[in-house]
Amino acid sequence: MKWPALVLACLTAASAAFSAAAEPRIRDIVDVQGVRQNDLVGYGIVVGLNGTGDSVKNAPFTEDSLSYMLERLGVNVQGEQIKPKNVAAVLVTATLPSFARNGSSIDVTVASIGDAKSLEGGTLILTPLKGADNEVYAVAQGSVIVSGIDVQAQGARETRGSPTTGGVPNGARVEREINYDFNQRSYITLALRNPDFTTAARIEDTINAAVGMPIASMRDPGTVDLNLQAMSDSPARVLAGIENLTVAAVTPARIVIDEKSGTIVLGEDVTISKVAIAQGNIAIKINERPVASQPGPFSNGETVTLPRSEISIGETGSGHIAELEPNVSLSQLIAGLNALGVSPQEMADIIRSMKAAGAIHAELVIR
Question: Whole-angstrom Cα distance, residue 323 to residue 304?
Fold first, then answer.
């Protein structure tokens, strides 16, 4: 598939308008040290499934969990054989936000760990969620919402998404707070998400100019320290005024190639030296046309299928040679490759070859 003219026009317009776009805020390019989320995890069971739960043979822990839960509820199931077709064992994960308070609700994700076919229509039973310190910080319960679907008939099966994974919106309630008194801090550290000397220096200059005193100092390309001892306002108030300041962040010259999806993303500052590119397409087509050989009349022979293959090798288009001038911009590079009639996959191969030849001046990231 070739790059459509509309896509090229949009990319060129976006590149030209980049300088006129709004500068990012400090809050969008830094993290405040100590202000972070915490991961929670728990083991639970989902009930109410329509025969799509775990089997006793492949997931015996589901039966044990169900028996333990029923005994805690006062139901004696000792010696009983339970076949939990409507029950599935799951792992429940959630993220505890910064400064979460008792009684607030958070979303949880539920994923099957047995051989359940689907969690659709199930209900998650009371599940404690623990942090890395093995303390319970939240308790989850609620109806599971599944976005995937699994439809099976006698001779066919269709699956979309993952029916064994679901979510419970606002399904967990915070039971324990993380003690952290932010306003007692005299020093605050801002960590850049994309470390860069120029960006860190601009953040320091912007904060000092806005506050009117040198409270910010750049420690390294990824860290800016704030000294709040001379400030009369609380640290929370100071950050509230600082985080919305805009800074002209520097974007590195980088090309990202996702080979799985065929996506190529090029930064605006990507330039290349003068280089010639030759490109030709070779297509290999294999057609299988099996032939059935029938035995003669009144013979004891059997019908045999004989393989018949046709292989053709040719060029989908003639080779092209294009010469690009030095310091080609993003839009010119895309337009030049599109003039060759290359596909996104071929474009990725050309970019890799140009990088190996030293003609392209950008960081190449391949995923």
Answer: 57
Cα–Cα distance measured from residue 189 to residue 219, given in angstroms and rounded to the nearest whole number: 10
Give CA–CA dist 354/277, Å, rounded.
9
In this structure, are residues 46 and 123 in contact, taking their beta carbons and an 8 Å threshold? yes
pLDDT at 160: 67
pTM above 0.85, yes or no: no
* pLDDT single digits (tens) 269-285: 777 777 666 666 544 34
Q: So what CATH class is 24-34+181-242?
A: alpha beta
CA gap 45, 29 in Å, rounded? 40
Q: What pLDDT digit, counting tens, does each position of 238-249 carry? A: 888 899 999 988
In the chain, where the domains are located? 1-22+251-290+308-367, 24-34+181-242, 38-174
Angle at 265 between CA 259 and CA 268, to 5 degrees: 155
Between CA 15 and CA 251 the distance in angstroms is 13
Tokens of 25: 């805020």
Instruction: List phi, psi (to 5°) of 47.
Output: -115, 170
Using CA atoms, how far apart are residues 254 and 367, in angstroms rounded to an integer?
A: 13
Q: What is the mean pLDDT of the chain?
A: 78
Instruction: Say how far apart CA 177 and CA 102 lie, in whole Å.
Output: 6
Confirm if 131 and 174 have CB atoms less than 8 A apart.
no
The pLDDT confidence band at residue 135, using thresholds 50, 70 and 90, is very high
Rounded CA separation 318/89 (Å) = 59
CB atoms within 10 A of CB 195: 12
**Distance of alpha carbon 166 from alpha carbon 109, whole angstroms:** 6
> Which contiguous run of DSSP H or E holds residue 339?
helix 330-339
Q: Which band of pLDDT confidence, cut at 50, 70 and 90, is reported for residue 167?
A: very high
Concatenated DSSP letters of 36-79: --EEEEEEEEEE--SS-S--TTT-HHHHHHHHHHHHHTT---TT
Split at pLDDT 50, 70, 90, the class of 190 is: very high
